[in-house]
Amino acid sequence: MSFFAILCALLIEQVRPLAYHNPVYAGVLAWTRWTSRNFDAGKPHHGWVAWSLAVFVPTVLALAVHWLLILTLGLPFAVLWSIAILYVTLGFRQFSHHFTGIRDALDEGDEALARSLLAHWQHVDAANLPRSEIVRHVIEHSVIAAHRHVFGVLAWFSILAAVGLGPAGAVFYRMSEFVSRYWAHKNGASTQPSSIWVQQAADRAWSVIDWLPARITALGFAVVGSFEEAIDCWRNDARRFPNENDGVILAATSGAVNVRLGGGALSVMPVTDPLSRAQAGESFVNGRGPDSGSTPGREPEPAHLRSVVGLVWRSVVMWMVLLALLTLARLLG
Fold first, then answer.
1. Are the C-beta atoms of residues 226 and 255 closer than 8 Å to each other?
2. Fewest Cβ atoms closer than 10 Å to its Cβ: which of 43, 92, 97, 288?
3. To 5 degrees, how large is the angle CA 213–CA 291–CA 288?
4. Largest Cα span, the chain
């Protein structure tokens, strides 16, 4: 039933996207704040205690509800629970409005508006970016957002659902990503900043958790794009990016659509509210040090934005077809 749950969640999310401010997000935020406030006591092991509670409690809760529904009401209700979990953890509409607004501004020739929208989205200083750099940063942020909101969730959900753990994988992946991002940016808060230990624990755990999904996403982009160029760029240029997992995805994207990615990082605006930056879903270029060069490829231009959209959707279709075939084989076997 994993294929059915994913398909329904994607369709519902396209028709009625989850509101930016919603009770689920408010609950997750309150839970993350509570764990760090009560268990971040400034010792190395406290970082792992806070991270484990923040991530595993919601994951176990999602799994417990899944099995409770199976044992009491039956499998159809458990599938509905999986659809609900996927609806709040998976979807393009959680970030695509930023991409669409910037793309439309560039199509209309309004570069000032495009810079303003990019600065608002990622909380960076984009005032002096030339047109090609606006496009480059939009591609980079959008591809990483697509991975974290769609492909990474699909990977962990599918793997754990296959062994009977229901929607726990989707919750586990999204909570791991959120606490890593939130605690990193909470470090800049003037009151109750996160200790280095919870940041390190969350960052190390996230690097391990995202290792396989990042490569699955990169492989999908290579298959539906220019395969040889994507693989070659993956092998030779992934190390140009500060974050290893993000670098794999961006290098594969660069080769798949023949566009230059990487280069100078955007400068982060002063932190006035770390929550707003955590909500923005900032990717690797913000606050992670300078980039170490760019990949080969054509200079970024607005036409590449459409190419990236096509690349992402073709990859979604490919993985959905693969899941459908695996589901059919399992039913017939």
1. yes
2. 43
3. 70
4. 60
Q: What is the C-alpha separation between 81 and 44, in angstroms, rounded?
A: 36
H helices of the chain, in order, are 2-15, 23-39, 44-72, 75-89, 96-107, 111-122, 131-146, 152-162, 168-186, 196-209, 211-224, 227-237, 244-257, 274-280, 302-332
149: left (phi over 0), alpha (psi -120 to 50) or beta: alpha
pLDDT value at residue 263:
77
d(CA 246, CA 265): 14
Q: Are 170 and 84 in contact (CB under 8 A)?
A: no
Q: Please list the ranges in the chain whose pLDDT falls under 70.
A: 186-192, 265-292
- Is the pTM for the entire model greater than 0.85? yes
Task: Report the C-alpha gap between 90 and 84 in whole angstroms.
Answer: 10
Q: What is the predicted pLDDT for the residue at 129? A: 87
Cβ(179)–Cβ(118) under 8 Å? Answer: no
